[in-house]
Specification:
The protein folds into 3 domains: 7-102, Elongation Factor Tu (Ef-tu), domain 3 (Beta Barrel), CATH 2.40.30.10; 114-244, Nucleotide-binding domain of ferredoxin-NADP reductase (FNR) module (Rossmann fold); 267-361, Ubiquitin-like (UB roll). Helices cover 18% and strands 33% of the residues. It has helices at 82-88, 124-137, 158-167, 194-202, 220-232, 296-302, 338-342, and strands spanning 7-18, 21-27, 43-50, 53-60, 70-76, 95-102, 114-120, 142-149, 172-178, 213-218, 240-244, 273-280, 283-290, 320-325, 328-330, 345-347, 351-353, 357-361. The strands form 4 sheets. A 6-stranded antiparallel β-sheet has the order 4-3-6-1-2-5, with helices on one face. Helix 4 packs across helix 5 (220-232). The chain is globular. Bound molecules: FE2/S2 (inorganic) cluster. FE2/S2 (inorganic) cluster binds at residues 309-312, 314-319, 335, 347, 349. Residues 309-312, 314-319, 335, 347, 349 line the site of FE2/S2 (inorganic) cluster.
Amino acid sequence: MAAPRFHELEIAAVRNETPDAVAITFAIPEDSRDAFAFLPGQYLTLRADIGGEDMRRSYSICSPLSEKDRRTVGVKHIENGRFSGFAQKLKKGDRIQVMPPQGRFTVEIGGDHDYLLLAAGSGITPCLSIAKSVLAGEPNSSVTLLYANRNSASVMFLDDLNDLKDRYTTRFTLLHVMDEEVQDVEIMNGRLDAAKLETLASHGLIDPARADAIYICGPEPMIRSASTAMAAMGVNEDRIKFELFTPAPGSAPAPAPKPKAVNGKGPNGAKHGASVDIILDGARRTIRMDAATDTVLTAAQKAGMDLPYSCAGGMCCTCRCRIVEGTATMDENFSLEPWEIEAGFTLSCQARPDTDRLVLDFDAQ
Ligand code: FES
């Protein structure tokens, strides 16, 4: 399978969701439908030249599976976020580079299930796609969505959520938690943290023990807190999926750290000077790199190569490739499963060679 490549898509609609969030809808041409097939919970990576810099940012799809010719993403403005600031100004008819859907925070539609979705802020976007797709595609399944925001003005996709509530009265439960606005039901006020989840469970408003699958999407502290609460309630970790937001406001690869040399080696014992063969789209190219100053991704970019990547932070797996020869060590890994590491996969945005020669295959999926 070929590595993911960008397509130029036209924006079919832009809708204001909140004062600082928009929903951007892309038209998917007939000949790109296969490439843009998706599973609920996946994201699109957008690419743009902003101030002369090649920037990328991933945004989760909020469309239901039934939507064949459009994909909508939710974009919330981040303070000093160059890409989100750029994206907020996009308008109908603009064209932008978009990578086909990626991500593992997914649901395979089919069967009868109880889903518990925990979302905070713009973490609602993949959860909305999951809720819409499950409710439409699994007639006997139920979805409980617990959605945390500061106040009602910051609730994204409120109309869509209310529509789901009206349409699936017995199978969809929507609970809002707010920490800057007082709601009538006292228990729904405050932060969505471990204590709040335990309180909601003890009052029977959520039932993690009964859920077949629990999806958590939001900022890292919320994910940690929710995961801790689920574990304390006896939920096995194989029933929990989470989507970690990219913490950095920019989307260009973070400059690789410059650690001190230790006995002629870089971080994690990686060799300083290494020859790396990169196989991409059937072609092979060799670069020289210094593991003390670069990851494979940043070294390849310096050599003028256009490798697939998105978050550059070890979270999204877009840069996944297989080690064919040699070994490499990752600085961070938030996304590869143990079996993938066992099978020789690595993340090029995090990988530094341990050996003098390293061969990486980006076509191996
Ligand atoms: S680009 Fe996201 S994990 Fe490497």
